[in-house]
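Researcher: Here's the sequence for the chain we discussed earlier.
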Amino acid sequence: MRRLIGIVLRWFIPVIACFGLGVASAPAQTYPVKPIRLIFGYTAGGAGDVGARLLAQKLSENLGQNVVVENRPGAGGAIADELVAKSPADGYTLLYAAGSTTILPALRPKLPYSVERDFAPVSMVMITSFALAVHPSVPVNDVKGLIALARSQPGKLTFSTPGVGSSSHFAGEVFKMMADVKMLHVPYRGAPEATTAVIAGEVDINFPSVTGALPFVKTGRLKALAVSSAKRAPTLPSVPTLSESGLTGYERAGWNGVLAPAGVPKEIIARLNAAIIKAVNTPEMKEAIVKQGLVAQTGTPGEFAAFIRDQLAQNAKVVKFAGIKTE
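Model: Thanks. This is the structure I predict for it:
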């Protein structure tokens, strides 16, 4: 009898184990079976929101389920980040993340979530360059000239941003750090106000998005000395990068990408990654992205994870260097 029981168990246990594996992988095989929420931490109407809605439309077509954008603004993006970080790990609640996702941890050490621990990177979606723009009266025509001027007048030159801790603010602080110059930061309530301040001559320098700077550069109300990305901006091809202009290795960009809660099955992450890459690289979406002054940029989950780690490390270094504090 004992021998018979042993034979039965040796046969039955592997069968149960295989059945369990089948059950575990079933959600990944059938995903998605209901609408997907794409959470964005800012109000409707901005470039990031437009990008989220473009992506959602294409993902809906690729996945055969509605992908619905939900705007959850507040706390510099932290409300949306926390909502997704604490959502079920089933792939039905995703974050359309922005640069703030990797800036907030450097500014607020006591966040109720961890970017590296609580999120699973899916894919980058797009990036946007910042322009190093100056008022036409600033007597320089290139980055080397600006650095020389700043060094000759420590703390006299001013630069405006949409606020403390904004991506534009960090772009300016990285410039100060790498160029070894002192400039006075002047925060405004938003990007339009910060750019208008330079146009009006209230401040000397601004780091607006290339999209925001373009119309004023074309009309001569701003001088664009460089762009912040690793490659030249398609909409300002004659303007060199900061790295080309003497600050070798300088690279800062606004970005958007998709994150899922940690623990989402790898098969679902792979399905989402493939759907995002397919969506972003369609001719119509690429054209729409370019019209927004953005650049499509997708990749593997591993590449996105490495980018996030690099951003977290650089942002922590910037906060320490600049002594940035938020109220």
